[in-house]
Amino acid sequence: MIAGIIGATGYAGAELVRLLAGHPEITKIVPASVSFQGERIEEVYPNFQGAVSAALLKPEEVVAEADVVFAALPTGVSEAFAKACMEQGKNFIDLSADFRFDDDEATFSAWYGKPYIYPELRQRSVYGLPELKRAQIRELADRGPLIIGNPGCYPTGASLGIYPAISLGIAASGATIIVDSASGVTGGGREPSRSFHYPECADSFAPYKVGAHRHTPEISRNLAFMSRCASAAYPAGLSALSVIFTPHLAPMNRGILSTIYIPLAEACRLEQSAPPRPPAKAVTERAEEIHKRYAAFYEHEPFVRVLPQGCIASTSRVRQSNFCDISVHLDQTGTMLIIATAIDNMVKGAAGQAIQNMNIVYGFDERAGLTAIPASF
Amino acid sequence: MIAGIIGATGYAGAELVRLLAGHPEITKIVPASVSFQGERIEEVYPNFQGAVSAALLKPEEVVAEADVVFAALPTGVSEAFAKACMEQGKNFIDLSADFRFDDDEATFSAWYGKPYIYPELRQRSVYGLPELKRAQIRELADRGPLIIGNPGCYPTGASLGIYPAISLGIAASGATIIVDSASGVTGGGREPSRSFHYPECADSFAPYKVGAHRHTPEISRNLAFMSRCASAAYPAGLSALSVIFTPHLAPMNRGILSTIYIPLAEACRLEQSAPPRPPAKAVTERAEEIHKRYAAFYEHEPFVRVLPQGCIASTSRVRQSNFCDISVHLDQTGTMLIIATAIDNMVKGAAGQAIQNMNIVYGFDERAGLTAIPASF
Amino acid sequence: MIAGIIGATGYAGAELVRLLAGHPEITKIVPASVSFQGERIEEVYPNFQGAVSAALLKPEEVVAEADVVFAALPTGVSEAFAKACMEQGKNFIDLSADFRFDDDEATFSAWYGKPYIYPELRQRSVYGLPELKRAQIRELADRGPLIIGNPGCYPTGASLGIYPAISLGIAASGATIIVDSASGVTGGGREPSRSFHYPECADSFAPYKVGAHRHTPEISRNLAFMSRCASAAYPAGLSALSVIFTPHLAPMNRGILSTIYIPLAEACRLEQSAPPRPPAKAVTERAEEIHKRYAAFYEHEPFVRVLPQGCIASTSRVRQSNFCDISVHLDQTGTMLIIATAIDNMVKGAAGQAIQNMNIVYGFDERAGLTAIPASF
Amino acid sequence: MIAGIIGATGYAGAELVRLLAGHPEITKIVPASVSFQGERIEEVYPNFQGAVSAALLKPEEVVAEADVVFAALPTGVSEAFAKACMEQGKNFIDLSADFRFDDDEATFSAWYGKPYIYPELRQRSVYGLPELKRAQIRELADRGPLIIGNPGCYPTGASLGIYPAISLGIAASGATIIVDSASGVTGGGREPSRSFHYPECADSFAPYKVGAHRHTPEISRNLAFMSRCASAAYPAGLSALSVIFTPHLAPMNRGILSTIYIPLAEACRLEQSAPPRPPAKAVTERAEEIHKRYAAFYEHEPFVRVLPQGCIASTSRVRQSNFCDISVHLDQTGTMLIIATAIDNMVKGAAGQAIQNMNIVYGFDERAGLTAIPASF
Fold first, then answer.
1. Catalytic residues of D, which ones?
2. In angstroms, what separates the C-alpha of B369 from chain D's closest C-alpha?
3. Which residue, among D16, D43, D191, D373, would best test binding to B if mutated, counting the most B CBs under 10 Å from its CB?
4. pLDDT by residue (tens digit) across C194-239?
5. pLDDT given at position D268
6. B338 vs A246: CB contact, 8 Å cut-off?
7. DSSP string spanning A121-172?
8. Of A20, B279, C254, D110, which residue is 20 to 30 A from A143 by alpha carbon distance?
9. pLDDT tens digits, one per residue of C219-229
């Protein structure tokens, strides 16, 4: 099978090239790049010398030649390629935000400042977070060529951390969930800028776009979807959950760590008295119970690892892998569930998840091409 | 004036040496070290070659020779030195937790696993967060030799970020405040260990001691103190505030960035409707109002900088300085105040604040010895 | 085939586990660890959770069960395991220095302070730098169980950079070659120590063991071997070459970059006049000629990449791969060849090269298990 | 005294602002910036908030108002400002290469591709490496307004490491000296580019501009100057020395470490026999002798620290200080002197040295404004 990659010279595109070049079902890679058209991918990325070799084509050429097309472009320019793919009967996996909001064009355009160009394409698109949407992806794939709206990096780690809490009735109805995340600098892309200039971000830690990051509505939409599926867990009803999301820039290349604060439902709460004391036995036991439920929830997921109690999620343990690590904690009073999730922002947060989606669409082993074991350092 | 430093070869001790060596009122430094006794400070820290030179003495010798004694020791061993100082009429500034909890021995011993050895010393001690306790420090100093319980690094950045919100009635009564912090690795001290071994923490980000860090009760106690002083701001009364605190380790040497989530009091709240939209004008204006109140609150503080709107707190901007930078934000719904604070964990979070306390005790210019301008990189 | 790994919880051992777990010919991994015996490898290295799972056995158990045995131990303790393997007819691949010096016990013991315990084992051992010794490895393997003395990390990058210069008669007879190398911190191993404590090596660069590093005699011995094979290139004879080697510690996890200064043989020299001027056309052309000869020399090597002119070796491009990248340069006067080589110290410099050796010994595809494409960041 | 800074918003300019703001003789700072004219320095560099405050003027305004003018501009644009300063009787300290080559316009233009615009200005200019040129600087200053050509960052560390070897007759006549240096990323300036984009240089080490860096002729010229002054040390004459210089980029913000290989003069050489053995007593003793001579040579220099034997130069020990640290070593054969020098590229390598030059020109204490003690981490 021939895989096409539009936007192959950006960071997510280069990860797609690397991972697809090692995918057992992919026989050829055809990359496109507007900036470097006419050059070869191994000239732009000399790390590929002797390992991957391909000329950088025009996007149209890629669409024409490939069986499946990936696009790793800025938000707002994927629709034309999606349309061409649909017309030519090819599956299209988009890493931008263009297809993440389904038919909710109002939310998309409020945050991204653009309308949908071809709104009708959303009849063929699905949000590609496999752990939430695997069944829908498969169904849609059965009906013809489809478009995957591959999730944003932050929403992936955040949503996977929150999903069991809602599905299992652990989160309080109507709660405000706080997602506090730190990302490596590759999240900012390959284009040089002051913010990502080495001396400006080395040995430094700071939040950015506080209260205003575009991944907020994507997380929020995912909470709404989870809530709709959670009626069994909330017999008395589940009032809308809201999310506050703060991203930070950490001085490292890869990884997103999200620390997620989820107020516990009445049935799960413990009210340990003030002044604060180290976690009482009841708190530790409650944490273990919830941990077990999280572990059972994700038992059959190939890429979600609920870590053993005592082991805390860290970006270093998922580096270059498609895993999402989750650790489960309670605050000392037993009223707040604290979930830490770690992903590689460029793999599970971008290129790896896109390939996982491709595997689902084509009925390949979901792990195909994504079997890299994370290194210890 | 002669300054003694017990524990001078740990990281906080070495910072005391560096800063006191440049202090205009300090004529001599006498350091002590149990591990390196008999060596010279510039042998243990060759960065001091040609700049600071002193033999490492026994702690008793330091107490005998110095006019003011600093101790940068593990928690649990300062009391004997404090007692000796009181008996010899010398001021004692302690960087451990031994004197941070005043007469609340129960909380101290619950978290640190040790009783007070000389509980009566707390009659001469005060918690040394100058922005909260300047008046009390001065009063106590007027009455004879005193003991300063220098604050923990995380509680410093957290408390300074929360203080105006409570004092000005901005925080909701009874709220749970979430403090999500990231620290550089010097916070773990100089003793080698797996956790702080370079390959284990480089290019990695992770939380630690979730729901169980010892700085939680210190922040909580500070909230209670602030609340007691805030009656004017809460005519209808202020129910107890609680805190959830999660520290993270970031791959950098210095700095603590705290992102603090403070639910807004009724009077300050805006309820922007779901689904989330980018911050409306009303939200931006409300943020500006609160920013102005924060700026006015700290107007006369020499080391607190409330940054202009649009400028976000970052650890890189306070490196090697005693500043605490604060930026003021709202979430997109206008219901949560989000405060970011940045300090250098080894300066405002340890040695610098200790010197600030000394300056207050002796009536020196509070900035003396702490005028370093943070470098741009 | 079952692979045994003694010393599996050190950094090189953990890399062996990771790489062998993905090797197509290895059906099972049996790791041993003295420090963590009784635990499981995925408990010691949680990055292996869900990907590799194995109990940590005693070394004897590993020797008994495995078909091929790797040892990643401190120098001085491998001989007993090598002996056991020879007696049980199993191949033994040793990552320490115990078998790197063949029958030159004098040099070994002068630098490592230990005699050989079983000198006779050297009749079954070979130095495992495949690009120099592939034929010898194969021959020895044909004759029964063998011992591989896997090269040191620095000598690997240094020797591969120098080899063509000697083989092709480019280096001046009798020259002193300077090897100036920088290594990532994983080279110091997993045991915590002050030198590799994060705050001591972050944001810092320094040489160590100047004029006294144990890899010097290994590089020197390799030069002697290369010289013996180079008689055709030096019809007038080749006087002994000597080496000066300086290692540096760089603030990064992986990688070794060696900058190698090789005085040019008379026939290759250009004498561009002082004062120094930017490289003249003649210098650039000479560099291109030598580049072509280097590229041709390594044309069929699976893991050596002679980079195109204009592209300079960098550790980032070989991260997690078994490649050795080489770039070819001349100084501005045209008298000194400057070779830069980059390897991942833990892969081509340790575990990867050990597996490459295993592949040669067993007649597997030399690339088996080592096909990872280096990531772009 | 009023200090003007043209190019105040580049990295070297910002360091000038920071250091001059703390200089006891400077009463006011007037900065200029073409890129940010009309803004304030504390807006461009928020680290200056509350510490330094100044409007960014036009360069002409700065020349008119200041008593002494610093320029931190790209090479090729300083001459006009130098001319204006000379006409207005003001001293001009230039951090570019425009005045580093005295009347050797041929060398300057060969490497920088530009002719001198006002060659006659060199009658009023001097190369500002104080340890080599202090007397000449003072003499020239006595005769009216002068121009300082502040040295390049690499040539500073390289020249200070080599100077005693030539002056004391330790270096072999006619030798080729190799300077292998690693720099932090601030050396690349503030302008964003691919090379200095965080993900491209983090966790990576590589050489650049091999055999072709513009600092080569500057080092070479300094060697010639040292040689002319060293006739007493070489009674038999000193043939011209040449230099090969290779810079590397290290993943850190500040610092340059140079490892310098200097072939020993006949009288100093020891010929320890091959194969290489650990350094013999004779080698260690010879190293100590040379160390003593180095230490004595720099005994009265305020900013050069010849480290005690056993202590190796490291960039971390000079961070934010004007020190140049030097450690003295021999290779194991006793034929090559290996000198390691460490400077902060932005202080002794740029802004600090410029201020040191100002102090000399005006007869201030040479340490004024440069007393910062390097921090331990």
1. 153
2. 11
3. D373
4. 999 999 999 999 999 999 999 999 999 999 999 999 999 999 999 9
5. 95
6. yes
7. GGGGEEE--HHHHHHHHHHHHHTS--EEEPPPHHHHHHHHHHHHHHHTT-BP
8. A20
9. 999 999 999 99
What does the CA dihedral D196, D198, D204, D206 come to, rounded to 10 degrees? 0
D281 CB neighbour count, 10 Å cutoff: 7
Cis peptide before C302 (omega within 30 of 0): no
List chain B residues with CB under 8 Å of A276: 107, 216-217, 220, 242-243
Closest CA to A330 of A283, A275, A292, A265: A283
A202 lies within 8 A of chain D by CB: yes
pLDDT beyond 80 at A26: yes
Q: How far is A277 from chain B (nearest CA, A)?
A: 7
Residue D196 C-alpha, separation from nearest chain C C-alpha, in angstroms: 13
User: 35-64 in B: which are within 8 Å (CB) of A?
Assistant: none
Nearest-by-Cβ selection for B331 from A244, A252, A377: A244
Interface test with D, best of C332, C338, C345 (most D CBs within 10 A): C332
Residue D217 Cα distances to C332, D101, D111, D294, D351, angstroms: 10, 9, 8, 25, 22
Nearest CA in chain C to D310: C209
Q: How many residues does chain C have?
A: 377
A377 vs C253: CB contact, 8 Å cut-off?
yes
**Cβ-based neighbours of A56, under 8 Å, separated by 6 or more:** A8, A9, A31, A32, A33, A36, A37, A38, A39, A40, A41, A44
Q: Rounded to the nearest 5°, which phi and psi values hold at A372?
A: -55, 130
Query: Stretch C290-312: mean pLDDT, rounded?
Result: 98
Q: Does D82 touch chain B if contact means CB atoms closer than 8 Å?
A: no
- Taking residues A67-90, report their average pLDDT: 98
Q: Average per-residue pLDDT in chain C?
A: 97
Rounded to whole angstroms, how far apart are CA atoms D128 and D148?
Answer: 6
Question: Angle formed by the axes of helices C215-228 and C105-112, to 10°?
Answer: 160
Q: Single out the residue of C377, B210, D199, C14 nearest to residue A313, CA to CA.
A: B210
Q: Give the span between the Cα atoms of D273 and B364, in whole angstroms.
A: 65
CA distance D212 to B70: 53
The total number of residues shown for chain B amounts to 377
pLDDT reported for residue D273: 73
Q: Consecutive 10-residue runs of chain B (377 residues): their mean pLDDT?
A: 98 98 98 95 97 97 98 97 98 98 97 97 98 98 97 98 98 97 97 97 97 97 97 95 97 98 96 85 97 98 98 98 98 96 98 98 98 96
Chain B neighbours, 3+ Cβ pairs < 8 A: A, C, D
pLDDT digits (tens, 9 = 90+) for B68-77: 999 999 999 9
CA–CA distance, D293 with D41 (Å, rounded to integer): 46
> Which region, left, alpha or beta, applies to residue B211 given φ > 0 means left and ψ of -120 to 50 means alpha?
left
Residues of C involved in catalysis: 153
Kindly state the average pLDDT of the residues A249-267: 98
Q: pTM to 2 decimals?
A: 0.98
Name residues 133-162 of chain B within 8 A of A (Cβ). none
pLDDT of the residue at D276: 87
Residues of chain D with pLDDT under 50: none
Per residue in B219-274, pLDDT (tens digit) is 999 999 999 999 999 999 999 999 999 999 999 999 999 999 999 999 999 988 77
